[in-house]
């Protein structure tokens, strides 16, 4: 059984892609690194995917889906961060009402950093096929007021990244992915 965390490498035009979507790739990598560094071993596999070709029609994600869809029932949740890594506010979630209640309970663990909201739907080109197939999905919600200042521009460099905000995003990704991966049962479909 698999809990999938992801971001994509998006620097295809004028920018470096540091915020879009290098930040999402980084926090996904960091989540697994933190879990490993803490010596935690969840009941399910945590899998990191750094997608390619999102801007070219999601070809990397479509290929991955084609290769793994026969095991769709073993995917517990698919998570994608693709709106930068600014100050997080919570998660977008798509799935059953029962699964949503579980995710809301998990998000209460993040009260100390004031990131507890669960929004109505998850977004993500790279996880869309999985969600259409019935797998619960989550996407990071953060303060996107400045997102389009940098999105696909020369300004999308590492100087845009605020290390403190990225750490908060990584904390959200780490807590949610680990707790879901370590629950007794998979999220209800």
From TrEMBL:
GO cellular component, one term: lysosome
Transmembrane intervals: none
Localisation: Endoplasmic reticulum; Golgi apparatus; Lysosome; Secreted
MF term (GO), any: carboxypeptidase activity
Any Pfam family matching the protein: Peptidase_M28
Domain of life of the native organism: Eukaryota
Keywords: Carboxypeptidase, Endoplasmic reticulum, Glycoprotein, Golgi apparatus, Hydrolase, Lysosome, Metal-binding, Metalloprotease, Protease, Secreted, Signal, Zinc, Zymogen
Lineage: Eukaryota, Metazoa, Chordata, Craniata, Vertebrata
Classification via InterPro entries: CPQ, Peptidase_M28
SUPFAM superfamilies, per the entry: Zn-dependent exopeptidases (SSF53187)
Domain Peptidase M28 span(s) in chain numbering: 1-173
Protein name, per record: Carboxypeptidase Q
Recorded family membership: Belongs to the peptidase M28 family.
Keyword Acyltransferase part of the UniProt annotation: no
One GO term (biological process): thyroid hormone generation
UniProt subunit comment: Homodimer. The monomeric form is inactive while the homodimer is active.
Keyword Glycoprotein: yes
């Amino acid at each position: 059984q698999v809990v999938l965390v992801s971001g994509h490498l998006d620097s295809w035009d004028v920018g470096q892609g540091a915020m879009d979507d290098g930040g999402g790739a980084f926090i996904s990598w960091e989540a697994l690194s933190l879990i490993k560094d803490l010596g935690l071993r969840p009941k399910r596999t945590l899998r990191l995917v750094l997608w390619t070709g999102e801007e070219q029609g999601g070809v990397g994600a479509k290929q991955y889906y084609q290769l793994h869809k026969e095991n769709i029932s073993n995917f517990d949740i698919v998570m994608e961060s693709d709106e930068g890594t600014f100050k997080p506010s919570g998660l977008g979630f798509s799935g059953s009402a029962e699964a949503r209640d579980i995710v809301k309970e998990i998000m209460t663990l993040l009260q100390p950093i004031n990131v507890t909201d669960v929004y109505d739907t998850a977004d993500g080109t790279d996880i869309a096929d999985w969600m259409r197939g019935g797998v619960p999905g989550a996407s990071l919600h953060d303060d996107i007021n400045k997102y389009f200042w940098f999105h696909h521009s020369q300004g999308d460099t590492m100087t845009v990244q605020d290390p403190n905000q990225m750490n908060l995003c990584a904390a959200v990704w780490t807590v949610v992915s680990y707790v879901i991966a370590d629950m007794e049962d998979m999220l209800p479909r």
